[in-house]
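Our consortium's second objective concerns turning raw sequence data into structural hypotheses that experimental partners can test. To show how far this objective has progressed, the report includes one record in full. It was chosen at random from the queue rather than selected for favorable results. The single chain below, 340 residues long, was entered without modification.
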Amino acid sequence: MTHDAMNHGDLPSSSSDDDGHSVSPTEHADEPRPADARHGVILLSYGTPDRLEDIPPYLTDIRGGRETSQELVDEITERYRRIGGRSPLADITKSCARKLSAQLGLPVYVGMRHWTPYIKDVVTQIARETGIERLAAICMAPHYSELSIGAYRTKLAEAIEQASRPIEMRFVPEWYTQTDFISGLALNLSVALKRIGTGSGPERAFVVFSAHSLPRFILERGDPYPDQLLKTAKLVAEKLSLDQEQWTFCFQSAGQTAMPWLGPSVEEVVPKLAQEGHRRIVLAPIGFVADHVEVLYDLDIEVPALLTEFEGLEIERTPMLNDSPSMIAALAALATEALG
């Protein structure tokens, strides 16, 4: 599966579309609340290619400069082509930043790990062009792993250390139980359950929560990632009063490497449910916050292709939070708390 978001994330939010990096708090709100001019927010995301032609250098960046096989380039390119040629994650991220800026009355920036605008370039801009002294940093991924969120923290810390002047970083490491986040997930799951219908026995909808897999060696390091994901799934299930026998959790989008990755995988779990007689299955990718290739291809295209032999099987996927009111409320609460 692909690499669009082990964040799992994307592009700059800007008042000048693709060329700028920040959103003016007065451009998008009629009456922004009074805000401290010394404060700002940066949303951290993985990055995604703007065009199909950008996929080779994008993969090279992800691989730390190592050469990418043409076979892998072709495979990833085909996946992006199948979802329309580009991920919508960039536009969604920019919209989140605009709406968050309007709500907070603060400038909001977006920095990427593996594509433009890179985190270091955005921090350089903030130091050079603004008077911001305190920066709330929020990853567009709620669950902490040293491999993912830890890498964002390191990139940001390095960028701030190299900046032309001091900037205080207020880093939000995790937000997997944040109230608005959980409520938004529950609302979207209820929408999917309503669409697919309710029933009893084999006709009762079964929910499959999922998140991006990571290498299994994180378990030996005591990484909290799997436990945090399971906690999120339990909170959402409880909010909708789902029976324990009505849902499960699995991983998806594992990397194509020789090392073992966390499982079970969605490719194993969903066909098994179908074999057991389940005829209504809802996919709920709670490890992601926005539509992107791991959702639009891995779940919407690959999973149904595994199930063509099962007659009468209905598959539904929950809407993503994207730039919904729940998502903006969650980000606003996190930023406000972080900034103090």
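The partners drew two points from this record. Residues 71 and 187 are 40 Å apart (CA to CA). Residues 1-21, 23-33 have pLDDT under 50 and may be disordered. Both points have been shared with the crystallography group to help prioritize constructs.
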